[in-house]
Specification:
single chain, 328 residues, alpha/beta, Purple Acid Phosphatase, chain A, domain 2, nine-stranded mixed β-sheet, six-stranded mixed β-sheet, globular
Length: 328
C-alpha cells in the first residue's frame, strides 16, 4: 500500500481532487485516505472537504499535476566547505509592502557575501488562487500584481547577491500557481508561462537543496516543509537523520539534537514577511501567532555546519544579530 503524504499536503489534494483520486494516486485504499483525513482534520483544526463531483475531469487533473511536476523530487546539490548560506523563507510578497526582514536580508547578503542565497518556499502568496473562499470583500491583490511584487523583491536580492547561487525551493503557496492551472486548463500543459518558474528563469528551481551530501555530519537538507507542529524542527532532524532547515511554520528557531553520531540542527528560518501583515489578517482572525520575522544564516567550516544563527526583526527598520542591533 502506498504511503500517504503529510496532513497539509493531503488536505490540498483531497480538496482539489477528492478522496478517490488521492487513493488512486498513492496506491492506497479509500478507507486509508478517509482515516488519515480524519486525523488531519484534528491536527489542522478544520474540515477537509472534497470538491463537487466532476468525475469527467478528475483523471485529467491527476495527469496535469504530474505534468507540472507536483510529485517531483528534484533536488539541487550544493557544496560549501568554508562559507555561508542565507535562507529567506515565507516571503508572501504583496505589492507595496516591503518588510524590515526583507531589507535586512538585502543588507546581510551584501555584507556577508554568501555562497548561496536560498528562498525556502512561499515567495508567492497567491491570495486569489487559494483553495479557500475569498474573505468577503476584503482587499486581495491580483495575481499579476503579486508576480510583479515577487519580481521586484527577487530582483533586489539578485542585485546584491553577486556570484552567489540563487536557489528557490518551492513551497505550498508557490504550488498554487501551477495547481490552479493544472486543474482548470489541462490542454495548456507545456506552454511557456504556465509554470511559475517560467517567470523567474534566473533562479534555480527545486524541491530541496542538498548541502554537502557526502559529509557524514555536515550534510544539510533545505526544503520548505517536512514534519509539522511545534516540535517540527526536532522531528525533522530525528526523521531526516541530517541537519534540516525548513520554513512553512514562520517560527524562526533552532533546535539541536545530539546522539552518538554528533549534534544535528533543526532550523525554522521564520518569515521574511511581517507577522501582522495584511496577507495574514483574515487567515489568523486576530489570534496571537507564534511567528517571528527574520532569516537564517548557515555557516560551514571544513564542511561542518556550525550552530545556525537567526537574524530577527526587533522593530521597524531594526534587526538583531549576534548581540547587536542593525539599522536596515
Amino acid at each position: 500500500m502506498g504511503k500517504l503524504p503529510p496532513y497539509e499536503e493531503l488536505a490540498d489534494l483531497i480538496e482539489l481532487l477528492g478522496v478517490a483520486e488521492v487513493a488512486r494516486m498513492f496506491g492506497a485504499t479509500q478507507r486509508a485516505v478517509h482515516a488519515k483525513r480524519s486525523k488531519a482534520e484534528s491536527a489542522l483544526g478544520r474540515s477537509i472537504l472534497s470538491p463537487p463531483s466532476k468525475s469527467n475531469i478528475r483523471h485529467k487533473q491527476v495527469k496535469a499535476l504530474q505534468d507540472v511536476g507536483f510529485e517531483a523530487k528534484e533536488s539541487i546539490s550544493l557544496g560549501v566547505k568554508n562559507g555561508t548560506i542565507l535562507i529567506g523563507s515565507d516571503c508572501h510578497y504583496w505589492p507595496g509592502m516591503v518588510s524590515t526582514a526583507h531589507m535586512g536580508f538585502l543588507k546581510f547578503i551584501k555584507m556577508m557575501k554568501p555562497q548561496a542565497v536560498v528562498m525556502n518556499g512561499d515567495v508567492l502568496d497567491g491570495a486569489t488562487i487559494s483553495r479557500f473562499p475569498p474573505p468577503g470583500w476584503e482587499y486581495q491583490p491580483d495575481l499579476i500584481d503579486e508576480l510583479d511584487a515577487c519580481f521586484d523583491r527577487l530582483n533586489e536580492i539578485k542585485k546584491v547577491a553577486g556570484k552567489a547561487r540563487r536557489i528557490w525551493a518551492y513551497g505550498n503557496h508557490d504550488q498554487r500557481y501551477e495547481l490552479r492551472l493544472a486543474a482548470l486548463t489541462r490542454e495548456y500543459a507545456g506552454i511557456k508561462g504556465f509554470h511559475l518558474h517560467d517567470h523567474f528563469e534566473d533562479w534555480e528551481r527545486c524541491w530541496l537543496v542538498d548541502v554537502n551530501p557526502g559529509h557524514p555530519t555536515g550534510r544539510t537538507i533545505i526544503k520548505h516543509r517536512f514534519k509539522g507542529g511545534v516540535h517540527a524542527t526536532y522531528n525533522n532532524t530525528i526523521h531526516g537523520g541530517v541537519h534540516m532547515a525548513t520554513g512553512h511554520l514562520h517560527s524562526a528557531k533552532v533546535t539541536p539534537k545530539t546522539n552518538y553520531r554528533g549534534t544535528f540542527y533543526g532550523v525554522d528560518s521564520g518569515t521574511l514577511a511581517e507577522p501582522k501583515g495584511r496577507q495574514f489578517t483574515n487567515y489568523t482572525e486576530g489570534n496571537p501567532t507564534d511567528w517571528r520575522s527574520g532569516f537564517a544564516v548557515l555557516t560551514y567550516v571544513d564542511g561542518e555546519l556550525l550552530m545556525p544563527e537567526l537574524c530577527l526583526t526587533v522593530s521597524k527598520g531594526k534587526m538583531q544579530f549576534r548581540g547587536e542591533v542593525f539599522e536596515v
